[in-house]
């Protein structure tokens, strides 16, 4: 077995996956609260190579790629819109789909629907500690929020945003680019204690298009290098088979 063929092919597969992630990061760069996906490479022992007699002579490894989400804080951008909120710290807003599924997001570009309910761009209800955040659509009182998440409309307190944190956010399941789902049995949400809210701001994606383009060039060069190795080994095997075939026939 020619191990180098498998190693080159595995490396090509890993770098192709890297290019896919870079493309997703570039697409998410303009989405508020989007989290960057990062890839890491490692070699894993795949087995034992064999000599001509069939006995194992040495172990060999295959390159693999692992994907993780970068939860580092993104830059905050002032918008002046009272319906824009940004979280500072490790926390998330809690939102709820129409089917009752709860999600967690750092995208705070909210709006009021026709009934006065605070919703996300996707139409998910933004939750307070007691249920969906509800405002009076006929009131002209300004909507304000404290750093701790207490929300008021005029002089009337409307509730407190359900801000949560996770001990191990890597266990969250991405749903899109800025929204996540949590399995409460493996990664239960806890009330936020290290998170503040900024009104009139949104958090940008924590990825840079310039950095991603530089990574794309690197990934493409790695792919091409392993492609050349694969072709070289294939040509070498073809030549060996041809020469051996010619020898045996003579």
Structure description:
The chain folds into two domains: 3-72 and 207-249, no CATH class; 76-203, no CATH class. Helices cover 27% and strands 34% of the residues. It has two helices and 19 strands. The chain has helices at 3-28, 209-249; strands at residues 36-50, 56-70, 76-78, 85-88, 92-96, 102-105, 111-112, 118-119, 125-128, 131-132, 143-145, 150-153, 156-160, 163-165, 173-174, 179-181, 190-191, 196-199, 201-203. Strand 5 (92-96) and strand 6 form a beta hairpin. The longest helix is centred in the last third of the chain and has 41 residues, at 209-249. The radius of gyration is 26 Å and the shape is elongated.
Topology:
Elements: H1 3-28, E1 36-50, E2 56-70, E3 76-78, E4 85-88, E5 92-96, E6 102-105, E7 111-112, E8 118-119, E9 125-128, E10 131-132, E11 143-145, E12 150-153, E13 156-160, E14 163-165, E15 173-174, E16 179-181, E17 190-191, E18 196-199, E19 201-203, H2 209-249
Antiparallel strand pairs: 1-2, 3-19, 4-18, 5-6, 5-9, 5-14, 6-16, 7-8, 9-10, 11-12, 12-13, 14-17, 15-16
Helix pairs in contact: 1-2
Q: Provide the domain count.
A: 2
Total DSSP E strands: 19
Largest sheet: 8 strands, antiparallel
Taken as a percent bin, the fraction of beta residues is 25-35%
Give a short summary of the structure.
The protein is α+β, with helices and mostly antiparallel strands and 250 residues long.
